[in-house]
């Protein structure tokens, strides 16, 4: 912690800050400059309310030195994490892993609309090269009058599609109560952007034996995303996959602003894999191709893309959804870009 | 719904949109201008995926006409809502109401730290003129290593402070599981900014016989706040108090950007009372006074302010917390401003 | 300047930073903590490229300690600045001042549309209590096809309105070339939000014997606004009035997000007066009243408000413009709020 | 233009809007729905103040249908623009073009610091494969105390570097007065983000026989960028190159948020080439590589990258600057990514 005093701070004000620092069990070091006085504080600042020092007389502002996450940080682990699905003994499911050389593409509808729909889409995306199936059974919707998902029935259809295609299932869990239910059907449990700081849900997923795909909140910084991951990690689940899905800004040409620099920024700070959701990140189908290619070029460890047989008839988010033909074309482009950056697009059963 | 075609859209593309509109059970009206073709659609657009029409060939963009909330809207109710606490038969609690001529000020610590602390603060804020006590027993914290609250013990201290002072208790509920517990102790249940779109929690509060103070999410629009309120209203609880507490922007002089224009904007759209939280809205104690006065001048129906005996020692958020003297001074200022805008600051027991 | 090293930084990396600091003529002080190493640097950091140290091996980040403005800061001047118009020997103009106890209200059309229009409005706003006339003769417009102002003809009409009403003229100057022309007619020269960092224009106004009303840029921080003011101050013009007019955020209920906390934040840092523009700050007439009252309650030293005889027919920005009746009502409200906060609304000729 | 009435709007209010529309020379078409009344207006809305209709009684809001730019739009030109440098008869300069299959990389220092510096860098970036030289002689700086550039002396060094290497010069022009001077030395005139809406400067560049590289403002939408381009185009200069350089958001992991979706969004709307500045767009050297690759993958028609012999000693922006080795490595990566998306990195003299 560093306490920066106002230029005109008095010796008594500096002494008061020093006394308060010592009271908190930490050690102050004062440095005097021509225009400034700075108190550098040694010791574990996680134990104190750093910002409180800002209200003491004569203080200009306080700067935190330590990140508040530990387990997620690159310092905590010598190598980057590679996070794989958990085998299912009675299933045809083909394993995938995030964070290695090969980049898995997860695809499927925004929401499960029915049995045939999800099976048709699963087969089409597998044919095009996807290695996992996405699809929402519980849907967080801004309006209470909007379609809220098929719930357990939707999970059953996803599981059936998995048995037909071998694709592991990635699906969202919205409440702590439904964690056991969703964990029974899902291979990767997704936490949506609106729940990134639903701390009880994060803790509940810390106790689950499945990878968690944690989406960045609409206005969360990358550090806040890592703090959220820390909640899961510290409860004992080391398998957290981070996901950039766009943030909210003034821009109106896209639904969200997909901030691809979050990919190198997260990999600079943490050992966890980073995937990108270009569908929610842009909101328009015509941008999904360019931004998927860009994500792979920027170092993403996976993609999660919305695909539907007829996007104009999708129950949810049709405007940002690719049809089968567009998805197939995109997969070919992604293989070329992945190769150009020394990686590959993951293929099923490898 | 209005579908705006690209300038070069063909007659076949327009016909296709018309056909799709009819398929959805709605009626299209095409208007041709020199540079534009617009399809105005009559019928209840809540039944369709408005944005899906955006993927049809030749479409430039789609504009939604109807708000998706009904119960919250000014059209739904002839008069503005006045929302009062529910009487407690075995309590000395003095009722308060939001939305009337008198403006209640809720004050107290960010978090309950102990029995003596909360009682001391409750007595001080009541003496200064507050009519309700705030204090967190369950705390949503960015970092898992930060203090998370005293939980039920904290609720008991709040209840004891209520009996000592007559001040109703406003406190946050973070999970659906804890709704019955919190509802037992609290007079107003607060939903924090991070939970504004925790839809299951919203629904659970729709079944509670207590007012809900719903804080606007960090990057939620005012329309999204009203949609969140609608979740509570449609489950049968009409007593929703909206709260502006600042949004996240590029600004770095304050913790959040307190957007006071949300006060007139919300009152323009909805009949529900609007309160302001200048403590979280600014993050710095020196701004709390000016922004509290401004909130009252802008038409706020209540204030919720953080107060502590010694802010520099608060467990949480000391930097934005007033001490007793500053709060007392502020209350006098608020009475003058309220009077200037034809209202009053609510006094206990009136 | 404070250089925060990565937790795993090596002794050699620390020594390298120390050497570079000394090379720059500054003195490093290293503090070692359990998890962190921090290098506090004494000396005038304005002489170095602070952020460059961030590229040295082992550095996590660099924190600037000193503000880069001096003349604008509260440390530079014992008292708050009161900035008045410059007398005109051959004019009926009545002087006004910003920053004192009395709060001037500047009102008038967004743009000068014609001789009669501006005179009619000037008389109406003076009758309602405004003490200065605003109106654009040169208009910055997003689209090249939009009305760009009457230019010198517009300035002449403003001057004529001044002689009729005694109201000093506040009008925008957009280019260095037109500074002499505008300075001839105007009593306060306004720099628009888009020109806040037009540094040559700022410098040109530093040489003018007229107060400058400097609007905050759409995405400028308060510190950047003060740096812009510093450009004017250091060229010799001490009369800079700062103006909050809303910033660009994700919010869609208003044209900009009027950030009233900028008022206390600017007054905390600088001795210059701060005025508020609630018209551009909101974009909607129905919010102008509440936000004007709020601005005064928050400590604003002036208001600048758009008024037109028939806003629906205004050439520019009608949606945010008050008609005469609404403005008259607002002035009465402002007098009450000003009194409530121990000030007054300035009256002509006092 | 579409006028959306409030649900409770009266017949008289609707008639009043219709009358006003006719008064403006346009034709209203009213559509009545169960919950809504909408007035679709046919005719050239560029002639009216669309937002003014928002103040009429009973109006909820007004939606603009037409974009206000014409010359920049994809409808205005059958093919995408390819914009090349203007030959210099007495120079060794090798031509380049933006918007074709080959992608030019522009590289060089943030600012010209001296003769040797710029020549050394020019030779190094040419050796690595850059085909144009960037470097600022006039620098817009937030603080008046910061280095402001070598001015004409800097331009001379850039011209000398051009003769040594054949690299055309891209450099910023900040004022209308200096347009002739900069145009004499520069091959592409850059307008910085802070000047994107300096409309007089835009107009002045409309009369210059050189391509203009127009950077997007820090909080400008893509439509506003296209309006700014329109100012140049309508004055007769068809050679405008658009540049995405990051926008200002709440994110703190990067200096700006590089919004790569602006690349497909701009190409969707306009026929002009789009280049990306990953140096200002991120602010940190370690992100420049990933984001440069991503930009090419997203469809960028060029890159402009800051390179310095020793970034830690750069006068300006060292933190975001690559050294020679990092730039050389990046160029090899970019060739691979360009090939993967069916393009190439432009080579000198082709």
Which key features would you list for this structure?
32% helix, homotetramer, Alpha-Beta Plaits, eight-stranded parallel sheet, 350 residues
Q: How do you describe this structure in short?
A:
4 copies of one chain form a homotetramer. Chain A has 350 residues and is α/β, with parallel strands linked by helices.
Strand order of the largest sheet of chain A: 14-13-12-11-10-9-8-15
How many helical elements of chain A? 10
According to CATH, what is the topology of the largest domain in chain A?
TIM Barrel
**Largest interface: which pair?**
A-B, 49 and 49 residues
Q: How many structural domains does the protein architecture of chain A include?
A: 2
Question: What can you see in these coordinates?
Answer:
- The structure is a homotetramer of 350-residue chains.
- With 350 residues, chain A is an alpha/beta fold.
- The mean pLDDT of chain A is 94.
- Chain A is built from ten helices and 16 strands.
- Chain A folds into two domains: 62 residues, Phospho-2-dehydro-3-deoxyheptonate aldolase, domain 1 (Alpha-Beta Plaits), CATH 3.30.70.1140; 272 residues, Aldolase class I (TIM Barrel).
- In chain A, the strands form four sheets. The first copy, chain A, has an eight-stranded parallel β-sheet. The first copy, chain A, has a four-stranded antiparallel β-sheet with strand order 2-3-1-4, covered by helices on one side.
- The longest helix of chain A is centred in the C-terminal third of the chain and has 17 residues.
- In chain A, a hairpin with a 4-residue loop joins β2 and β3.
């Amino acid at each position: 912690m560093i306490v920066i005093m106002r230029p005109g701070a008095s010796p008594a004000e500096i002494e008061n800050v020093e006394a308060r620092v010592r009271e908190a069990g930490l050690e102050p070091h004062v440095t005097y400059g021509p225009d400034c006085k700075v108190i550098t504080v040694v010791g574990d600042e996680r134990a104190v309310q750093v910002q409180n020092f800002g209200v003491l007389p004569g203080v200009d502002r306080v700067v935190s030195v330590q990140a508040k996450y530990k387990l997620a940080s690159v310092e905590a682990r010598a190598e980057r994490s590679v996070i794989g699905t958990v085998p299912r003994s009675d299933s045809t499911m083909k394993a995938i892993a995030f964070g290695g050389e090969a980049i898995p593409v997860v695809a499927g509808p925004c929401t499960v609309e029915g049995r045939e729909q999800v099976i048709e889409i699963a087969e089409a995306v597998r044919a095009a090269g996807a290695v996992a199936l996405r699809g929402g059974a519980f849907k967080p919707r801004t309006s209470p009058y909007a379609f809220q998902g098929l719930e357990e029935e939707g999970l059953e259809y996803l599981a059936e599609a998995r048995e037909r295609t071998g694709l592991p299932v990635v699906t969202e869990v919205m409440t702590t109560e439904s964690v056991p239910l969703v964990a029974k059907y899902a291979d990767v449990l997704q936490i949506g952007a609106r729940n990134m700081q639903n701390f009880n849900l994060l803790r509940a997923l810390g106790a689950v034996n499945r990878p968690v795909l944690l989406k960045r909140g609409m206005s969360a910084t990358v550090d806040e995303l890592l703090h959220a991951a820390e909640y899961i990690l510290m409860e004992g689940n080391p398998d957290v996959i981070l996901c950039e899905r766009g943030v909210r800004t003034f821009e109106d040409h896209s639904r969200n602003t997909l901030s691809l620099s979050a990919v190198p920024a997260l990999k600079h700070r943490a050992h966890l894999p980073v995937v990108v959701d270009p569908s929610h990140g842009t909101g328009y189908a015509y941008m999904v191709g360019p931004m998927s290619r860009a994500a792979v070029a920027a170092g993403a460890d996976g993609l999660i893309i919305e695909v539907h047989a007829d996007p104009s008839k999708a129950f949810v988010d049709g405007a940002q959804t690719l049809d089968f033909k567009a998805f197939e074309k995109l997969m070919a482009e992604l293989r070329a870009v992945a190769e150009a950056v020394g990686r590959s697009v993951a293929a099923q059963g490898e």
